Amino acid sequence: MARSILAACAAIASCFGGALAQDGRPENPVAEGLYGPLDMYPGSALYSKPIEVAPGVWSAIGATQPATYENGGHNNNLSFVIGDNGVLVVNGGSNAALAEALHDEIRAVTDKPVLYAAAENGQGHAMLGMSYWKSQGVPVIAQTDGADVFAEDAYEILDRMKTVNKEVGDGTEVAEPDQTFDEELVLDLGGVTAQLVMFGPAHSPGDMSVIVPERNVIIAGDMAFHVRMPPIFEDTDTAGWLESWELFREEAEDRIIIPGHGGPTDFATVDAGTRVYVEFLRAEVQKILDADGTLQDAYEIDQSQYKHWHTYWELAARNAGRVFETMEFE
Predict the structure, then answer these.
(1) Cα–Cα distance for residue pair 227/180, rounded to 1 Å
(2) What are the DSSP calls for 38-81, one per residue?
(3) CATH assignment, 2-327
(4) Share of the chain above pLDDT 70, in %
(5) Which helix (H) or strand (E) holds 210?
(6) Could you write out the DSSP letters of every residue in 219-275?
(7) pLDDT tens digit string along 49-82?
(8) pLDDT per residue over 11-52, tens digit each?
């Protein structure tokens, strides 16, 4: 199984190339292929065809890029878990077309009904496609904080998605969850258990993971990243994320991990792609604060060791600035 997971990751991982501007910054990292192919699954709204990570646990690995028209907004992982009684879908995708395309893939491997659709957080690429699942009569589940954030920003998120995805976004509507939970919700899929767990503050409000103990898999959601740089949002609690990480470690260390971004892998890989980076950034910002430095100093932190990560050029300086602004008041 370990070799098959590594092979799947290699297939998803992108080739590097493209011309750099004189200052070393690429003119257009996505178009130049620095973050992988623009589309890996022609003929489908999905960026890539789902792979079976463990028996009955599948994931369509999204582009490790910003959302674009070419990748259809499929830049996170859309997963599903099959039990004897039915299926749990994890993430709706950025639009109804992605959710419908995932449904087609589910039907290709099982005739069991979709029983639930759960959102890893309140971001658009987790929640917007839920309008499709609700139209199919499938109950939608989210963690309470994620549901609240989505309810507050849903129409702005929808408008942004439609600006990027154009006609691909047609038919997508705002659909709020039917059920929320605070810390844990256990779903019986028939012979397979899905434990929806909130470990605590992380990359965005409402980040939750799905543990499938019978398959030794954890669908980590945006608790965990690799291949692409984790984005730090205005509401990202990096100190809380490091505390939550230790709880996540207890559950994830010996399991197959499907992260929020990047292909299925092991704990050491997402630890390096998430915790180590957050600790590095906080340590560098603390040095600046101790020296009475400025926000501009934070923007100039040398993050070149992470230049190979996808979305580096879009996120590195912004991440440092946001950590600085937060740590000023910790």
Answers:
(1) 31
(2) S-SSTTSSSSS--EEEETTEEEEPPPSS---TTTTT--S-EEEE
(3) 3.60.15.10
(4) 93
(5) strand 209-212
(6) EEEEEEE-SBPPP--TT--HHHHHHHHHHHHHHHTTSEEEEEES-SB-HHHHHHHTH
(7) 999 999 999 999 999 999 999 999 999 999 999 9
(8) 444 333 333 333 578 999 999 999 999 999 999 999 999 999
Rounded Cα distance, 229 and 320, in Å? 12
Alpha carbons 313 and 217: distance in angstroms, whole number: 32
Tokens of 178: 């039917």
3-state secondary structure of 197: strand
Q: How far apart are CA 121 and CA 68, in angstroms?
A: 20
Bridge partners, 172 (sequence order): none
Q: How far apart are CA 211 and CA 223, in angstroms?
A: 13
202 with 240: CB under 8 angstroms?
yes
How far apart CA 328 and CA 330 sit, in angstroms, is 6
Q: Are 235 and 263 contacting, i.e. CB atoms less than 8 angstroms apart?
A: no
pLDDT digits (tens, 9 = 90+) for 202-242: 999 999 999 999 999 999 999 999 999 999 999 999 999 99
For the chain, the domains span: 2-327
- Give the predicted TM-score (pTM) of the model: 0.92
Amino acid identity of 268? A
- Rounded (to 5) percent helix, strand, coil in the chain: 40, 20, 40
Averaged pLDDT of the chain:
93
